[in-house]
Amino acid sequence: xxxxxxxxxxxxxxxxxxxxxxxxxxxxxxxxxxxxxxxxxxxxxxxxxxxxxxxxxxxxxxxxxxxxxxxxxxxxxxxxxxxxxxxxxxxxxxxxxxxxxxxxxxxxxxxxxxxxxxxxxxxxxxxxxxxxxxxxxxxxxxxxxxxxxxxxxxxxxxxxxxxxxxxxxxxxxxxxxxxxxxxxxxxxxxxxxxxxxxxxxxxxxxxxxxxxxxxxxx
Length: 218
Hints:
Shape: elongated
Helix content: 40-55%
Order of helices and strands: EHEHEHEHEHEHHHHHH
Number of domains: 2
CATH topology of the largest domain: Rossmann fold
Strand order of the largest sheet: 2-1-3-4-5-6
Strand content: 5-15%
């Protein structure tokens, strides 16, 4: 059972998020907090596995609350929740120690999978943020600055078409957009993305994009 502390200052939002977990027996919200200070104190008291942290809190920001929670207990993992896209907040969240950055319009099943992946030790960034990672890397994801030939040598099992698809994934394109760009079917685009994820030994397309950036392909 994954134990979760929900931090959200809006009552209706808390009710809605809590209701999402009724159909997922492998995880449970064991506590709620309405502000950053309460989140810090409750994380000490109930020791959750995961904190679902709203960034826009009224007393102190979710980012500052994350810093203090992790200073008290480094075993807790924090998933940042936000309703808007902001590359500055993304960088600040990762510097604070957050394990994931999620836009609130995420699909419910996808969110539950993110929680499971983060609980298992993975890092996850919403695909909508990939273009910002590419354009403003600021050292959050350190690049090894390998040459393209060195990357290809390290990942020679990727086909030329898969390299083309990977670059479009890094650009933040969906499967349907990739299909249009390369004049292939959406089913074929999806198959290429699945092959890339498997060959790069990552969990999803976002991690594939991040790995490509780190390894210097793009």
